[in-house]
TrEMBL record, chains A, B:
One of its GO terms (molecular function) is DNA binding. Keywords: DNA-binding, Transcription, Transcription regulation. This is LacI family DNA-binding transcriptional regulator. Residues 6-60 form the HTH lacI-type domain. Pfam families: LacI, Peripla_BP_4. It comes from Pseudosulfitobacter koreensis. SUPFAM superfamilies: lambda repressor-like DNA-binding domains, Periplasmic binding protein-like I. The lineage of its organism: Bacteria, Pseudomonadati, Pseudomonadota, Alphaproteobacteria, Rhodobacterales. InterPro entries: HTH_LacI, Lambda_DNA-bd_dom_sf, Peripla_BP_I, SBP_2_dom. SMART domains: HTH_LACI (SM00354). Transmembrane segments: none annotated.
Length: 354, 354
DNA sequence: TTGTAGGCGTTATCAA
DNA sequence: TTGATAACGCCTACAA
């Protein structure tokens, strides 16, 4: 009735071999005769043996050491992500897995490279990093992989690289989603969307814009793109100018950061005319408040909570060399005022501590 | 540099007591003098000792036995959920946790009770079940809890009960979200929403309607509610009637199941007039296809994948008597045509196998 | 090519 | 009130 799961000892017994031989077969260590191999395999499937990962790790004193490398700086989104990693790290101590969160200067691939080389020498079992497009990053990932250290790209992929997996959204899909919502919100009427990005050269922003273009149609047009460099001051002035220059604008889509500036513009708009429809990315403190205040309509979010969970799960699987289950890309989630998740406790300010 | 995490032996050594004594203190087994207790606690925090769960479970030959009880029948949503549980169960074999998925006749609390009583006698470590409102269920949960078996309610809560946690969406929030989207889609114009539910007596459906009511305003009104008993044939005829009887209807919100019927009605609508805005619940085969075909606008989904993950994680934590982290309710997710997740492999048909 | 045995960190039993 | 120690299932060094 209450039979415990079979152990390797059970398998060995049934196959009529020693424990060590059964182990050699099961773990493919070689040096076993064909006849024996078959006997052991038969016993394994007859008994339904499944290796006990916990016991295995215990015997090896296996400690998982993972590192997440995030861009440093004052970005609210990555501050949130850092929080999430740290909370997760605390929860995992009892499972003998450590997760260190590091920050490197954003967009400086030399610094990143140096840091990763260092980590490679220190017995790290897996690394998660926010990808960037340059070839230098591709190389580092290849180097790490050759040393047996799997790399998972996070938020932004490094397509040509040997990363084991990408955890993040598809930005074309995200932009397309925004497009659909814009269509819906215009309800067949004509309209003009003002697109705001950090820079058109940024891959993710460009992808989002492309997704938007693919979906909008009918009487909806695009105004010329504003590049706000993800800085709220620049976003503020440029958007304010664009709105006063072109009264036909009915909607704003901000594909990048610096949205505090955009929100200030909307807030300052005269109450006489209906404000434009506003959709932007990432649920952070200021976008949440704007949504609650009715200043903006929709926030499209890449769910950092889910991303963090997947990164950790994925790294663990890779370190265990289990079948990599690694499910598909993250689905961008749509927040309106009514389905906001409960507010979390904020720890990292996003500003460098020192 | 590469120091392994401290073990209880390290703690004992530092506290100047035997291993067994340190164990007694750490696990609160009593029978230790105050002085000693303090010494051990001091050592624990000095060294930063964290109990190694894997080793503990190994020594106890701990095998987690969880059971998920789902309503049987031809509901596509629960078929999907069953799939998800089964996939998760397979993945967990190596971690010595078994998860059996059972189905009981929907809405028959006597059958449910009998099944649960049986399980209680069989050494189950935790149960997930889809709640229903009746007092009988409240009692069973209390009984299980008194036997030390934690219960997690899933999809539908049992508020007055002693369930350890609820994993599911807040249906008022879900309805409110729909309300907001309806407002957005009408863009200030007037409109009339046709609400479709399974039954007004169903708690979740009623909650969704309430959420909707709380948000809509302006020139948006509600037509009288259709009760379709979650049957696609009834939904089909009633919705068709309502639409032809009231041409002022601009939108349909289906808070329940039986949406295949609703979709057929929309499909058959004359192409002369713009079709109504349609929002419904749960991403399943037919709602996905309708979204892709442009027959409906939005699907609001409770993310069964995430629910299953949380149930398992929660049950495990409860069984381990760790701090129950159990995060808040699931946030209903909004799908449009563009952000559909990749289609999954379908296993359970939703129809009883025999 | 095959077998033996000690150790991983914890629990629990038996002694002192 | 305290201490010693045999499991638990697996890995691995060593022996045959």
């Amino acid at each position: 009735m209450h039979d415990r799961p079979p152990t390797l000892a059970d398998v060995a017994l049934r196959a009529g071999v020693s424990y060590a031989t059964a182990d050699r077969v099961v773990n493919g260590r070689g040096g076993v005769s064909d006849k024996t191999v078959r006997r052991v395999h038969a016993a394994v499937s007859a008994l339904g043996y499944v290796r006990n990962v916990a016991a295995a790790n215990l015997s090896q004193q296996r400690v998982y050491r993972f590192v997440a490398v995030l861009p440093e700086g004052s970005n609210a989104f990555f501050a949130r992500m850092r929080d999430l990693f740290e909370v997760a790290a605390a929860r995992m101590a009892a499972d003998r897995v450590t997760l260190a969160v590091e920050t490197v200067a954003a967009f400086d691939s030399d610094v990143l490279r140096a840091r990763l080389d260092l980590l490679a020498g220190q017995g790290v079992d897996g690394i998660a990093l926010v990808g960037s497009d340059d070839s230098s990053t591709v190389e580092v990932i290849a180097t790490l992989r050759s040393k047996g250290i799997p790399v998972v790209t996070l938020v932004s992929d490094v397509p040509g690289s040997e990363r084991a997996a990408y955890v993040g959204i598809d930005n074309v899909i995200a932009g397309g989603t925004v497009g659909r919502l814009m269509m819906l919100a215009h309800g067949g009427r004509s309209g003009r969307i003002l697109p705001v990005v950090g820079a058109l050269s940024a891959r993710d922003h460009a992808d989002r814009l492309q997704g938007l273009r693919e979906v909008i149609g009918g009487d909806i047009t695009l105004a010329s793109v504003i590049e706000g460099r993800d800085r709220h001051d620049l976003v503020e002035t440029h958007v304010a100018e664009a709105l006063s220059a072109d009264p036909s604008i009915t909607a704003i889509y901000s594909a990048g950061a610096g949205n505090a500036g955009l929100i200030r513009v909307v807030e300052a708009l005269p109450a006489t005319t209906p404000r434009p429809i506003v959709i932007l990315h990432e649920l952070v403190a200021h976008s949440r408040r704007a949504l609650e205040a009715g200043l903006i309509d929709i926030v499209i979010d890449q769910r950092p909570e889910e991303e963090v969970a997947r990164v950790i799960d994925g790294l663990r699987q890779l370190a265990d060399r289990r079948e990599p289950v690694m499910t598909a890309v993250i689905v961008p989630t749509i927040y309106v005022r009514e389905n906001l998740p409960p507010e979390h406790q904020h720890t990292n300010t996003g500003h460098p501590a020192r």
